[in-house]
């Protein structure tokens, strides 16, 4: 909490998209969301304050001691959080230690869970927060998901990172998850300075429609709301944070419209 890090806004995007989902209804009630925290840093887990974090996504991917224990089912590690209608499969640091222990079996767990509708009676949407580095944990997440939001900064490095992710997605979809598609590239924490505007234009010509519009504006109070007060931007309030929430709502709504009509 409160640590400085070079993040590009992925975790905040995951949380805000999940929150945006809960503002929409299905069968006359709010949509329910599961967040799977696949980042050993556990930033999403810190924000959401689950009722307990002893068990978590690590127990689904690999048991503590494969000789004596079996992995848990995904539904067994979905814990209520401080956010209404948001369940969480918590992360912890052992996720990183245990990464090397992940069996091929464990790696495809999330994909199987999705295809079999294992938690379809509990939640309507699943949001997975990935670690920054593309290792086995990120690959596990990519194998398990259908729509990937890539988060990038409006910078040369941001554009390169998005390009690398696009390549990784192509490989993963060929190698084991043909349903995987890029929902869009989110330009998170965008400051409307002249040089970032120029980079944004060049990203537009490089990525076309994949680059989501508008970019998420950089607002200093996002950090305070989400990290210090564990509160979604819209609920923390203020015109600046509403602006941020509106952009995420737009992204969620257009994915929902697209996904709904595809079924
Ligand atoms: N729109 C925004 N405006 C201002 N600050 C933001 C915005 N979005 C995110 N931040 C802040 O930027 C920092 C990094 O965000 P976040 O943790 O979401 O990035 P990340 O990509 O998940 O990082 P990591 O790679 O460490 O997982 C955080 O302090 C967060 O509060
Ligand atoms: Mg993160």
TrEMBL record:
InterPro entries: AAA_dom, DNA_Partitioning_ATPase, P-loop_NTPase
Domain of life according to the entry: Bacteria
Span of domain AAA: 3-182
Residue intervals passing through the bilayer: none
Name this protein carries in UniProt: ParA family protein
């Amino acid at each position: 909490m409160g640590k400085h890090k070079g993040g590009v806004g992925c975790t905040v995007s995951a949380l805000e998209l999940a929150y945006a989902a809960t503002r929409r209804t299905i069968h006359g009630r709010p949509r329910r969301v599961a967040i799977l925290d696949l980042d050993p840093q556990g930033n999403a887990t810190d924000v959401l304050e689950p009722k307990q974090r002893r068990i978590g996504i690590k127990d689904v991917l690999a048991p503590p001691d494969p000789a004596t224990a079996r992995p848990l089912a995904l539904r067994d590690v979905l814990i209520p959080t401080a956010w209404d209608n948001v369940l969480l499969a918590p992360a912890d640091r052992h996720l990183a230690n245990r990464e090397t222990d992940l069996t091929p079996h464990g790696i495809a767990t999330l994909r199987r869970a999705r295809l079999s509708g294992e938690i379809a009676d509990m939640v309507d949407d699943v949001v997975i927060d990935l670690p920054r580095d593309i290792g086995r944990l990120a690959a596990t997440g990519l194998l398990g998901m259908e729509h990937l939001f890539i988060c990038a900064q409006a910078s040369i490095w941001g554009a390169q990172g998005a390009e690398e992710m696009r390549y990784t997605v192509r490989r993963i979809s060929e190698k084991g998850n043909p349903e995987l598609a890029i929902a869009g590239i989110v330009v998170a924490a965008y400051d409307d300075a002249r040089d970032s505007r120029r980079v944004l234009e060049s990203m537009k010509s490089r990525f076309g429609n994949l680059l989501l519009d508008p970019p998420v504006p950089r607002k200093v109070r996002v950090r305070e709301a989400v990290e210090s007060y564990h509160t979604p931007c819209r609920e923390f309030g203020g015109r600046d944070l509403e602006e941020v929430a509106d952009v995420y709502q737009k992204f969620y709504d257009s994915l929902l419209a697209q996904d709904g009509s595809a079924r």
